[in-house]
């Protein structure tokens, strides 16, 4: 399984070059993604892995009933090492032209008046406080997703370290049939098909966990009726599929990795398949989760 943190620098660079060749991805967006990844990977390499035995995980019986190992709000994180990464990400965005740089200037003035703003954003992200981010989106109309992006991108290395620790104790061979991540309880943002059998895996929108999922089941409302589930793709993106559910009107994209030599991590596959989001929305379906980049 390929993740943002499992690739070496050369392999990651090759994958970013593949994204750069796609006409529908703006160069400014790829600059943000590439720069963010470099900062996140440096932060991740400096973290000590948490001890899975010391995490207050749910018991076997609760997990058998669908309880996550550790609810997202209970994931441990440390604001102290997170704050420098927040500042580095702001510097990255400020170096670019356009609305992100303007929004960062406004945000820096706000942070000078309230030094606790980053910590408040971290807490809001952990608690899934949509009201907090909606209020800031209104205050930063030139880049309404900025605060959410910064909070998610800053905490991603720490959340990845926790989910990696949980993965060492979980049986990855078992299919998880519930509509949320087995590690944290949040929904997936991207799926993948692996191996000759086309085993299906989902990637969590919060902690980045990858887990086995049912082959024919809506990941959000758990609908299994074949007449309610539909799949479509486009000739321009032969290795991607959109799976939609007529019951809840939600969709998830799947990357078919069965014949790909250098698979993209889910967070990059999501970007590579952006035209399918447009097609799904034109069909009247919604995506209930943001991308791995907070937008």
Write the layout of secondary structure elements.
Layout: H1 9-20, H2 27-45, H3 60-64, H4 79-94, H5 99-113, H6 117-127, H7 130-139, H8 146-167, E1 188-194, E2 199-204, E3 210-213, E4 229-234, E5 237-245, E6 251-256, H9 266-272, H10 274-282
Parallel strand pairs: 1-6
Antiparallel strand pairs: 1-2, 2-3, 4-5, 5-6
Helix pairs in contact: 2-4, 2-8, 4-5, 4-8, 6-8
Molecular structure report:
This protein is an alpha+beta fold. It folds into 2 domains: 9-46 and 67-168, no CATH class; 188-283, no CATH class. 43% of the residues lie in helices and 13% in strands. The chain has a 6-stranded mixed beta sheet, covered by helices on one side. Helix 4 crosses helix 5 and helix 4 (79-94) packs across helix 8. The radius of gyration is 19 Å and the shape is globular.
